[in-house]
Design a protein that fits this description.
alpha/beta; Spore Coat Polysaccharide Biosynthesis Protein SpsA, Chain A; 7-stranded mixed β-sheet; 37% helix
C-alpha cells in the first residue's frame, strides 16, 4: 500500500496562466519532494489548464475542475481529495525558495504541538514603496496573536489533515476574509496555531500594483477592523472582489492613482490631501 505524502498542496485557480507555472516550477525545485498537488480550477477562461500540462511529468499533481468560482468551494474540493498528513493551502501567485518545504518540515518537527500554522512573508519587489508592506503584514500576524485575534492570509495556511472535518471547512458564504475565519474557528475550538518566522514564502503584491497602494490600504483597513470586531463577511466584501489572475476590482471606493506615480507628480496640496486620507483610515464608520 502506497504511503500517504507528507504534504498535500491545495492550489485554487482562476485565470492564472501567468502565475501558476512560476509556482509549479518552484515546487519542481523543492529540496523536499514528499508532496502531492491538488490543483482546483474554477473554469478559467485563459490558458491556465494548458500551462499545467507540462508539469504532469515533473510533479505529483492532479487537476480538478469546477464551474463554481469560489475560492472556499475550490479549497474544500481540494480537502476532499487530499491524502497528505498536512494540508498546505497556497495562492497561485506565491513564489517559494527551494528550501521552503524542507523548512516547514523542520519547524513542524521542532514544534510538534502545532496543528495549524502560517509563516511570515517576504516581498520580492523593486518598488520601494511596496517593501514596507512586508513588515506590515508580519507585524500584523504577530499583533493578532498578542491581542487574541489570530489570523492568516489565505495565500498560505497549513493544517493537519486529521483535524479538518467538514465542520471546519472554509465557509463558502463569505465574500472575503474566509481565510481568517477558517483559522479563528479552529483556534476557538482549541487547536494550536503557530506563526513561523522562517521559512518565508514570497507574497505577491500584484493587488497593490493593479489597484494602487492607497486604495488597497483603505480596503484592508475596513477588513481588518471588521475582523477584529468579530464580524463576518457574508453580506459585505468592502470592495474587495477577487476575479482571479485577470484583475482585482474595487468598485466601492474612489479610483485613486497608483501611489508611486502620484508622489512623483503631485503638488503640495495633493500630498497634504493624501496624508489626510491615511488619517481617516482609523476613523471609518461601519
Amino acid at each position: 500500500m502506497k504511503q500517504a505524502p507528507f504534504f498535500s498542496i491545495v492550489i485554487p485557480t482562476l485565470n492564472e496562466e501567468k502565475y501558476l507555472p512560476l509556482l509549479l516550477e518552484d515546487l519542481v525545485k523543492q529540496t523536499y519532494q514528499d508532496f502531492e498537488i491538488i490543483h482546483v480550477d474554477g473554469n478559467s477562461d485563459d490558458q491556465t489548464l494548458k500551462k499545467v500540462a507540462p508539469f504532469k511529468d515533473k510533479l505529483n499533481i492532479q487537476t480538478l475542475q469546477t464551474t463554481t468560482r469560489n475560492v472556499s468551494f475550490q479549497r474544500n474540493m481540494g480537502i476532499e481529495k487530499a491524502k497528505g498528513n498536512w494540508l498546505l493551502f497556497m495562492d497561485a501567485d506565491n513564489r517559494l525558495p527551494a528550501y521552503f518545504l524542507d523548512g516547514i518540515r523542520y519547524r513542524l518537527a521542532k514544534y510538534p504541538e502545532t496543528e495549524l500554522f502560517t509563516t511570515w512573508v517576504s516581498i520580492d519587489n523593486e518598488k520601494s514603496l511596496n517593501q514596507p508592506i512586508e513588515r506590515t503584514i508580519n507585524f500584523g500576524l504577530e499583533f493578532g496573536r498578542v491581542v487574541g485575534k489570530e489570523w492568516s492570509l489565505g495565500a498560505f495556511i497549513g493544517v493537519k489533515r486529521s483535524i479538518v472535518t467538514k465542520e471546519y471547512w472554509f465557509d463558502q458564504t463569505q465574500k472575503v476574509g474566509e481565510d481568517g475565519i477558517f483559522v479563528k474557528k479552529l483556534i476557538d475550538n482549541g487547536y494550536i496555531f503557530n506563526i513561523f518566522r522562517d521559512p518565508k514564502y514570497v507574497f505577491s503584491v500584484r493587488r497593490l500594483d493593479s489597484e494602487g497602494t492607497i486604495k488597497m490600504a483603505r480596503t484592508g483597513a475596513r477588513l481588518a477592523i471588521n475582523y477584529l470586531q468579530g464580524k463576518d463577511f457574508s453580506e459585505q466584501d468592502f470592495g474587495y472582489k477577487m476575479e482571479g489572475g485577470g484583475a482585482y476590482t474595487d468598485q466601492a471606493f474612489f479610483d485613486y492613482y497608483d501611489l508611486q506615480k502620484f508622489i512623483k507628480t503631485a503638488t503640495k496640496n495633493q500630498i497634504d490631501q493624501a496624508k489626510k486620507l491615511f488619517k481617516t483610515l482609523t476613523k471609518i464608520e461601519f
